[in-house]
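The aim of this short unit is practical: by the end, you should be able to scan a pair of folded records and say something sensible about each. We start with the first protein, listed as its amino acid sequence and then its structure tokens.
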Amino acid sequence: MHFFAGAAGWCRATDVGAHWEQIASANWLATASHAARCIAEGVLIDIGSTTTDLIAFRAGHVLAGERRAAPSSPDPRGGRAGRSPALGASDNSRSDAARLATGELVYHGVVRTPLCALGPRIAWQGRELNVMNEFFATTADVYRLTHELDPEHDQHPSADNAPKDVAHTCARLARMIGLDGRDAGSDEWLAFARDWRARQCDELRSQVARVAAAHALGPHALAVGAGCGAFLVPELVPAGWRVLDYGRDVADVAAPATAAWARVGAPAVAVASLYEREQR
């Protein structure tokens, strides 16, 4: 058995104790390293149930933790870089705390994020209302109602442990502004869900812009979408960027169903792919 330890390379089980800091929470680094081997310049946007990773890369290098990369000419076609990723930044600069500071780690996901984290006020029937800062509903309620969340990824209990049908989902959304599900029709609750969706997209879009500016990514950079929330990625990137799918374009899986699995399980696929390449 081998363990991916980032800059420390691969280690055996007997060495895990010495490298636990490099191994812990290195899933994002594995996925970004795999993308950096295949794509000339861009940013990995991996949106999961709880968090979003925004990891820039260029010419085979994972740029996370670096303040600014050296200027280079991006390949507008997004051609394959064909070089091993260099892990130049220090391990400390790649900690969760450091990545929260740079915007490379955002605690926003499409399942578990409490809706009250998306903003203090929300529009309802032409008025702005204060949001109830309680764990009354989550982003799963939003994307379940918009039919964007795959039921296979809707794995966590609802905020009130009630069922996940439409009526109970609407009731949880209503509770965020002191109402009950019966106080409006299904179309109004769907529009309300879309307003919450817009709030989350606004925040994630601003974080993508922060990372792109920090690493001077060019106007023709690529975004690699991964995770169960990859359906949001096309709405988060600057104009002129092209969106690639991790499963299809990085893992190079042709079968749609398998590519979709690879997109959601990107870190596992990345670790396997990186290890396989090193054994050649």
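Turning to the second protein, read its sequence before its tokens, just as you did above.
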Amino acid sequence: MRTFALAVGLAGVLLSVPLSSSQGEILAMMNYESKTPEALAALNLNASTDRREGIAIIDVDPESANFGKIIADIPMPPTQVVHHIFYDRAMTKAYITSLGGPSLQVIDMARFPYRVETIDVEGCAMGEDVVFDEANRRWYLTCMQSGHVFVGDVATDGVLARIDLPGSYPHGIGISTEANRIIVTSTVSGDLKDPHEFVSIVDATTYELLGTKRLSLKSEGSGEAPVEILFAPGADRPTAYVTNIFGGTLWTLTWNEANGDFDARQVFDFGSIDAGVALEMYFNEARDRLYVTTGKPGQLHVFDVTDIGDPKHLKAIPAGEGAHHVAITKDERYGFVQNALLNLPGLSDGGVTVVDLRTGKVVASMDTLKNAGLNPNSIVLLPEWNSLAGH
């Protein structure tokens, strides 16, 4: 594996002590890239070397005297097109996907200074999402442009298998041990010109493709683009929520043991409240609230999911254009909404909206990267503060 060591902070001071807890701070890790005027050009995966990429660790506690201060900065190769950050279930490792090369980065969160090691995943084009089985033994990486899902060993990070999903654009992925199924969304080609409208169903033991399931009430070819999927924790029957990014809808896939398949149902249309570009999902610890982001306008939506199959929309909390990932504190007081999606026009505010989840109100905006001409592409809190929120 290739390794990049933790770099100095922007102030130019070498860190000599571990990043540990102190009163009045909440540390977030965000990967970022240059904010380009011609935003669509950022999708060119042969990006020029004058692009800037990295991972910043920033104090995001709105009550801290250091709110918005960059504590450390990890430069990344400017052509990497670093995409998302995912923790394993124990939050001992952070996995980082890349759109620009056949690789997966990993950080050992217990080893300081942090080092970014590269796992070669030959044949993966546009690495998107990483999920972990319930036992935290296997990781699964979706590769949107190559029609593959790679399976790896969490302990060794060796690649174990490749799942072939021909004719699809794998993006979101969810796994149910109870149903012995893997569900993978087929979203859109890398140039955003060929949106799909189905998910692939895979046997979680044999990795055999069992079939597909269409998630659209519209005519064939509508291109609603299912993007993210998240199984509801603790459900009586395995039930996954799916967001359609172009269709702006929320669906459920509920396990039907009698026929060994999932029953699909559209449960909410964000267009009914003038919202669209449905993206990420998160659960609270009590499992009675679902949080969903929409990029246009940037909002964090709160659903009552006491009845998993019949979510009730409670509130739309304003965020920034391109509202995407959310980092939630362990005590569920704060949600930090990262506002940027692929440098796309009208979806790249670049700030972080701080929401008090108890009151449902915005309490601050963290614009450090935005003011530096950078877009954050995802956000997680360091493990000491981070809730997995159903992931």
